[in-house]
């Protein structure tokens, strides 16, 4: 599979949810060799990139909502080394304080409103078909679980006041 192609699809999926909820969506710029392919499960990579990009888009939207500046793009870099494939997703959404880092990999931890409260007019069946940008609090723990399944890892470095660096590093081993 081509990681660049999967990253592009996942980013577009995330952007369309962002567009629906905020009325706008930051750009996602993807860098890397479009012809590079390697053996991996496309749906796994799609889920991880989708979750990380959704988080980045939300952070950037929330930070620039009252600003007249153009929101800075989310950047994805696909690095194809001889041994390791690494994907870095970074944003300028302000990051979080270091003290908050232990919480973000906890299931059900979210700083967004719970979509179940938000859409209390919908019943559970309808809710299953509504995708939201954030609010369930399992995007990060599930993504890390997926990454680790094939011997990879998900690492997150926060630069409070600037943004987040999210590494799928290595993607597999
Ligand atoms: N790139 C980011 N910038 C700033 N904060 C972030 C970023 N990514 C995650 N967070 C914080 O970590 C929390 C947990 O993220 P996680 O993806 O697990 O859940 P969620 O986005 O709230 O809900 P969902 O399960 O729907 O993705 C978020 O609510 C947010 O506060
Ligand atoms: Mg999320």
From TrEMBL:
Residues 42-163 form the Histidine kinase domain. Pfam families: HATPase_c. It is found in: Mitochondrion matrix. One of its GO terms (cellular component) is mitochondrial matrix. It comes from the Eukaryota. Its EC number is 2.7.11.-. Its main location: mitochondrion. Keywords: ATP-binding, Kinase, Mitochondrion, Nucleotide-binding, Transferase. Belongs to the PDK/BCKDK protein kinase family. This is Protein-serine/threonine kinase. It comes from Solanum tuberosum.
């Amino acid at each position: 599979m081509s990681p660049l192609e999967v990253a592009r699809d996942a980013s577009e999926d995330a952007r369309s949810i962002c567009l629906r909820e905020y009325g706008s969506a930051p750009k996602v710029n993807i860098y890397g060799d479009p012809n590079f392919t390697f053996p991996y499960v496309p749906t796994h990579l799609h889920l991880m990139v989708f979750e990380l990009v959704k988080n980045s888009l939300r952070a950037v939207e929330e930070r620039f909502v009252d600003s007249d500046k153009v929101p800075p793009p989310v950047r994805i870099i696909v690095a194809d080394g001889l041994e390791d494939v690494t994907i870095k997703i970074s944003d300028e959404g302000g990051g979080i304080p270091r003290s908050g880092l232990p919480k973000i990999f906890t299931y059900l931890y979210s700083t967004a409103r719970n979509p179940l409260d938000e859409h209390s007019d919908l019943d559970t069946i309808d809710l299953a078909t509504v995708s939201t940008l954030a609010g369930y609090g399992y995007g990060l723990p599930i993504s890390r679980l997926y990454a680790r399944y094939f011997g990879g890892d998900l690492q997150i470095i926060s630069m409070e006041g600037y943004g987040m660096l999210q590494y799928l590093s290595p993607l597999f081993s």
